[in-house]
Design brief:
The chain has about 240 residues and is mainly alpha-helical. It contains ten helices and three strands. InterPro entries: Mn/Fe_SOD, Mn/Fe_SOD_BS, Mn/Fe_SOD_C, Mn/Fe_SOD_N, Mn/Fe_SOD_N_sf, SOD_C_sf, TAT_signal.
């Protein structure tokens, strides 16, 4: 079913892109019908061009992310105690979620969490990290250049759809990992420092099948100030998704 849905989305992308390109302003997110809501983009859809085009940003945020939020709220509508949990706590307790809604929570809760992390770590000017974050990257991942090379290779090698992440522990230790589909390190109680989406809808309008090129250009829009804030919050135990 996931493959059929993805084929349908990809088939519709040209029409969606045309509509997005002529849209005068970013669509207002509909009012949430549950505890979870679509966070607004923290910048204009055009802010990441030319590395990531504005039509892709609008489709990705306004349609794909919104669908995860809507489906998650629908899954939780009769489960008040679960609905009241912060998203990272809900996903850390995935094995306790009733079997009848567990797959929906896994797929859509993971998608909501992954994208809620994704938008804020972009919108920057790339470059390289500095300070304590740069020191941690050197200590645990061999330095920024090696981390970027390994990250890109992991993302390119992720078969099918998924994500590549750098996770951060409470002691500040960093690790590189990938997950399939919309799985999240939050399922294992881990925190994400930053991550990149390698689903085709994240890059196909501009890059088609050139995922490695997308991965390489993505670093041009990383917001290292926000990533450093995530690093500090993870160490302090205050980082959510």
């Amino acid at each position: 079913m996931i493959r059929s849905s993805r084929r349908a989305v990809l088939a519709a992308l040209p029409a969606l892109a045309a509509a997005a390109a002529t849209r005068p302003a970013r669509a207002q997110a509909p009012a949430p019908s549950g505890p979870h809501s679509l966070p607004p983009l923290p910048y204009a859809a055009e802010a990441n061009e030319p590395s990531i085009d504005a039509p892709t940003m609008r489709i990705h945020h306004d349609l794909h992310h919104q669908a995860y939020v809507t489906n998650l709220n629908n899954a939780l509508k009769d489960h008040g105690q679960l609905a009241a949990l912060p998203l990272h706590e809900l996903l850390a307790k995935l094995n306790e979620v009733p079997e009848g809604i567990r797959t929906a929570v896994r797929n859509n809760g993971g998608g909501h969490a992954n994208h809620s992390m994704f938008w804020p770590v972009m919108g920057g000017r790339g470059g390289a990290p500095s300070g304590e974050l740069a020191e941690a990257i050197a200590r645990d991942l061999g330095g920024f250049d090696k981390m970027r090379t390994d990250f890109n290779a992991a993302g390119a090698g992720r078969f099918g759809s998924g994500w590549v992440f750098v996770t951060v522990a409470r002691d500040g230790k960093l690790a590189l990992t990938t997950r399939p589909n919309q799985d999240s390190p939050l399922f294992d109680g881990e925190r994400v420092l930053l991550g990149n989406d390698v689903w085709e809808h994240a890059y196909y309008l501009k890059y088609q099948n050139r995922r490695p090129e997308y991965l390489a250009n993505w670093w041009n829009v990383v917001n290292w100030e926000r990533v450093a804030e995530r690093y500090a919050a993870a160490k302090a135990g205050t980082l959510g998704v």
